[in-house]
TrEMBL record:
Gene3D superfamilies the UniProt entry points to: HIT-like (3.30.428.10)
Protein name, as recorded: HIT-like protein
Provenance organism: Glonium stellatum
UniProt xrefs under PROSITE patterns: HIT_1, HIT_2
GO MF entries: catalytic activity
Motif (Histidine triad motif) on chain: 130-134
Length: 193
C-alpha cells in the first residue's frame, strides 16, 4: 500500500473543536447564526478561533495560517472527511453561505479577486481531514512565492494570524455579513434559510 493511502491525519479535529465551542442556535433567523461580539470570544478554544458564522450545518472562521489578509475557512459543522461524504442538507447550506461569505470577504478586505478552494485527501493538499472551503482574497500586490501551484492550494509561504488584527477583521466580517443578510435577495430568502 502506498504511504499516501494511509490516514496521516491527527487524532483530534480542530474544526470539530471549534464547532463544539460554538454550538448552533435553535433560532431560524439567519442573523442569529452570526455570533454577537460578546459571544464571539476567540479565547473560548485553543488555538483561538475567530468565528464569523455558526449555522446549523456550516461554520466560518479565519484561517490561523492565512495566505492573505481575510483568508476565511467555511467548514461543515459535522465531521465529514471528504466532499463526497457530506449530506444533501449540508451541501445546500454550504451553497447558500459561500456567495454571502465571499462578498463579505471582498467588502471587508477591499479585494474583489479571490479563490475558493476545496481540497480532498492528502494528495490534494488537504491538511485538516474535515471538509472545508478556503476563500482567499488575491490582492493586486502579492508576495513573491517560489512554488506558486502548491501555495495556491494551501502549501508554501503562510504567516501566523495576528490576533489583534484578527479580532478587528472578524468583527468587521460579522458586521458586513449581517448587512449581507439584510439585503433583499432573489427569491425573497431574506432572514431565512
Amino acid at each position: 500500500m502506498n504511504e499516501l493511502d494511509q490516514d496521516h491525519y491527527p487524532q483530534s479535529c480542530p474544526f470539530c473543536a471549534i464547532a463544539s465551542a460554538y454550538p448552533p442556535t435553535t433560532s431560524r433567523s439567519l442573523l442569529d447564526y452570526v455570533p454577537k461580539e460578546e459571544d464571539a470570544d476567540p479565547d473560548r478554544i485553543q488555538p483561538n478561533a475567530f468565528v464569523i458564522l455558526s449555522a446549523p450545518d456550516v461554520m466560518a472562521f479565519l484561517d490561523i495560517l492565512p495566505m492573505t489578509n481575510g483568508h476565511l475557512l467555511v467548514a461543515t459543522r459535522t465531521h465529514r472527511k471528504l466532499i463526497g461524504d457530506i449530506e444533501e442538507a449540508e451541501g445546500r447550506e454550504i451553497g447558500f453561505w459561500l456567495p454571502l461569505l465571499a462578498r463579505t470577504v471582498a467588502k471587508v478586505t477591499g479585494v474583489a479577486d479571490y479563490n475558493i478552494v476545496q481540497n480532498n485527501g492528502v494528495r490534494a493538499a488537504q491538511v485538516v481531514p474535515h471538509v472545508h472551503f478556503h476563500i482567499i482574497p488575491r490582492p493586486e500586490t502579492m508576495p513573491e512565492v517560489k512554488n506558486k501551484s502548491w501555495t495556491m492550494f494551501g502549501r508554501g509561504q503562510r504567516n501566523d494570524l495576528d490576533e489583534e488584527e484578527a479580532v478587528k477583521l472578524a468583527g468587521d466580517m460579522r458586521s458586513v455579513l449581517r448587512e449581507e443578510l439584510g439585503r433583499p435577495a432573489d427569491g425573497d430568502s431574506k432572514g431565512r434559510l
